[in-house]
Design goal:
By secondary structure, the protein is an alpha/beta fold. It is built from eight helices and eight strands. It has a six-stranded mixed beta sheet. A two-stranded antiparallel sheet has the order 6-7. The radius of gyration is 18 Å and the shape is globular. The N and C termini lie close together (5 Å).
Length: 220
């Protein structure tokens, strides 16, 4: 199972109030807690990248390294893999990302690609129960559009990526045009990962495609 090493800064209530407004400048860390969490468990929580953090900046080169590391573990016999370190602080039942947002954002994009491909396979065979179970689990990690039309996103990006990430990645509306370099890199990361997974599935039977996606899901 893929794990992140998470560092949680624990503050008093008074200090948390200041951090919500000026997270760069206020609050004194009173305790630091380290833990390891499976990727899917971490992403099922409400996570926010504050506006003061830099925008998404990974190019295809970093995304390729991300995929190489991840799939080296998926294809190995190792039971666990420490995949990266995430620094957060808590406030208002939310985790605010201090460090690690690039890898975390790419992880969500990766899971959304797996979800989208599984949905396409469901169109080929709607009775494939394993795919229904998989997409439900991924929906819990990524988010979805609610019955009332509101969009629930477990990861909220900051700055100029906030709206684009929700609409393009979470909601899957690829008709939206990227308005800046960072938006374009998010779209490029999705396209790169989608091509990577599609090439892994190319030439396989339907059953083998499902098995491959199941293996990926079981290892995360």
């Amino acid at each position: 199972m893929v794990h992140y090493r998470t560092v949680h800064n624990v503050y008093t209530i008074f200090q948390e109030i200041y951090l919500l407004f000026e997270p760069c400048h206020f609050g004194t860390m009173s305790e630091m807690k380290w833990a390891t969490e499976p990727m899917k468990d971490l992403l099922e929580k409400k996570i926010v990248v504050p506006d003061y953090q830099r925008d998404y900046s990974w190019t295809n080169e970093e995304v390729a390294d991300f995929l190489s590391d991840l799939h080296s573990f998926i294809n190995s016999n190792d039971e666990e893999y420490l995949y990266g370190q995430i620094k957060t602080h808590f406030g208002n039942n939310t985790r605010y990302i201090i460090d690690g947002q690039q890898r975390l954002c790419t992880s969500v994009i990766y899971l959304k690609v797996i979800w989208d491909i599984a949905e396409k396979l469901k169109e080929e065979n709607s009775k494939a129960e394993n795919l229904w179970e998989m997409t439900y689990a991924l929906r819990e990690c990524v988010g979805e559009k609610q019955e009332n039309g509101d969009l629930r996103a477990n990861l909220t990006m900051g700055g100029s990526n906030k709206v684009f990430f929700k609409d393009y990645i979470i909601d899957g509306d690829h008709s939206i045009k990227a308005s800046n370099k960072s938006n374009k890199r998010i779209a490029a990361a999705y396209a790169y990962i989608f091509k990577y997974i599609s090439e892994l599935l190319e030439g396989l039977s339907f059953d083998d495609k499902v098995k491959l996606l199941e293996n990926i899901g079981a290892r995360l």
